[in-house]
Amino acid sequence: MDIIKRNFYRQLCIGAFGVGLKLEPMSAFKWNKIKEMAAQKNVLCYIDNTVERDKFQPAQQELPNFFLNHRLDKLRYHEQHSIDASGETLSLLNLIIYNTNQILSKGLDLRGIVEFGIFLRKRGDKVDYVKLESWLQKLYLQPMTRIQCSYLIKHFFFSPDELPFVVDEIKPPSRLALGALHFLNLCSRRLSEIEE
User: Fold this and answer.
1) Tens of pLDDT along 82-120?
2) Does the pTM of the predicted model rise above 0.90?
3) Which of 126, 117, 127 is nearest to 165 (CA)?
4) Alpha carbons 117 and 16: distance in angstroms, whole number
5) Residues near 40 by Cβ (< 8 Å), separated by ≥ 6?
6) Are 84 and 121 in contact (CB under 8 A)?
7) Nearest to residue 97, comparing CAs of 124, 120, 116?
8) What does the DSSP 8-state code read for residue 159?
9) Which of 113, 132, 135, 134 shows the shortest CA–CA distance to 124?
10) Which of 20, 38, 51, 56 has the fewest Cβ atoms within 10 Å of its own Cβ atom?
11) Are 85 and 131 in contact (CB under 8 A)?
């Protein structure tokens, strides 16, 4: 990874998670490149302290599959009417579904992944991870959640202990998987250009 990418992820960790990392010295041109990358990925508010952070609150997410979406609606209904209802757990599930939909339609949304990490660090102690794990199994979202978690581990210095709802061993995404996601991202961009 070149110096721009290393400093980009380090600056993102510093701004979003408050991690004390040392940045490598770079020229003003390279710092401007980092700001351009951050603006393009919608994470400039974490890189540049002068930019105000807008509240990231994705709407209630739906799954693309009718049957899984029906299962999700039943799950939400029962959780909201349960005695031990956990709003934080539902919010985290919504964020996971948002990131999954983004990955499948547009490619990896860096802002969503960063917000996923912030949620885990700030409000993760209020989440019922046993319940979340069972929901992820019922909705077949574990593989996509593993991709999101592996990105947090690889680029944002999370430890696997901070991600207790993923049972299987988290491995970094293979080049083949990342290549497939990149290809899907390129295809969706091409289709959107053609439609315009």
Assistant:
1) 887 788 899 999 999 999 999 888 888 899 999 999 999
2) no
3) 127
4) 9
5) none
6) no
7) 116
8) -
9) 132
10) 20
11) no
